[in-house]
Amino acid sequence: MRFDFAKAGSGLTYEIRNIVQIGARLQSYGVDICWENIGDPVAKGEKIPEWMKETLKKALDDDNSYVYSPTKGVDATREYVAAKNNARGGAQITKEDIIFFNGLGDAVARTYASMQVDGRVIMPEPTYSTHFMAEVLHASFPPNTFCLDPANRWMPNLAELKQKVRHANSIVGIMLVNPDNPTGYVYSEHELMEIVHIARENDLFLMFDEIYHNIIYNGKSTPLLTDIIGDVPGISMKSLSKEVPWPGGRCGWMEIYNAGKDAAFDRFINAIYQQKMAEVCSATFPQAALPLILEHPNFNSYLKERVKYYEKISCIAADELSKSPYLYVNRANGAFYMTVVFKDGVLKDTQTLPVKENAMKDYVESMLSENAELDKRFVYYLLASTGICVVPLTSFFTSINGFRMTLLEKNEKKFTDIVRKIRIAVDQYAES
Length: 432
Description:
CATH class of the largest domain: Alpha Beta
Order of helices and strands: HEHHEHEHEEHEHEHEEHHHEEHHEEEH
CATH architecture of the largest domain: 3-Layer(aba) Sandwich
Mean pLDDT: 94
Helix content: 40-55%
Strand content: 5-15%
Low-confidence stretches: none
CATH superfamily of the largest domain: Type I PLP-dependent aspartate aminotransferase-like (Major domain)
Number of domains: 2
Largest sheet: 8 strands, mixed
């Protein structure tokens, strides 16, 4: 090449996927990997029910499933989504307030890319990688965050949020994932109303990633953004990929609330739409299938059973991991992830776990720099020693040492064995 033209990027690593490379290398040494790093229910053994397959076949029989859709998405599906939202009685929208994307990753990337570089969105810490990496890439500066407190059940520090938005004029929006990824925290109505108040008071927009809204358990509940937003401009992000489940369908959408009430917000939404127009449209087939699946008579009972299982698994994980004196454990109450935190001073850069072959140990050490995060060191050794693949918590932009695992294993006995092995490994690592 006549010059080095590759963009440098943000310097951040998407560890949820990056660790797969480590696991694949260890597989070549004969390690049997248990993938607890990524939220794919199907890959973890969930079977797609026959009624859902038959529904998809019905959509495939319709020739309209093969055409370009309008840029914003299939008209009938957007009308369905708008009607479903409006029936709640909250913020009212039309099909024109809905834009479909090829998964929420696409929606997230285009949303932050449509902002001027000096406009910032504040988000919780730890926060989901896709959001903070897209926000950092757009601004070329570290993200603005407010803390979720592991010592207080991951409750958000709303006083910190209020102070930061008042003193940083560059902040134009507040983003949160509810239920939260990576922690499994479910925001209360009181907390959400306070966040709406902060946005209104400081003339900000709200962006709620609500992809897991129908996966809530352990007696918790939370309103949707549409229920509480009032007159504040906002975006809700939703997807047909987790509750169905169909992660490979790559079908996400945004619902835009209170369009037409703020000129700057309207220009922002139009910039997102213009980006989407350059792509022509998102995949038509999953959009066409969406109403058919959600309105199927078996859907609600199917979803209820899945949520009931996640509740059971969350309790098994919390009960087992709480036996370790080296961990802070907060039970997940939503989504299908659980985040565990090491107590202060537990981790050191000299600790190890037994690894069968020296070559494997050498490989793990070679992947850890001298200043590697301490939880990343534990996670890599856990992978090499037990084959269990989790994600270091520091990869979710936080200085808190811990790890995130999924609650997706469909074999209860196997899951119980996994969390027991993790707990034993934690104790052994801490005492090495």
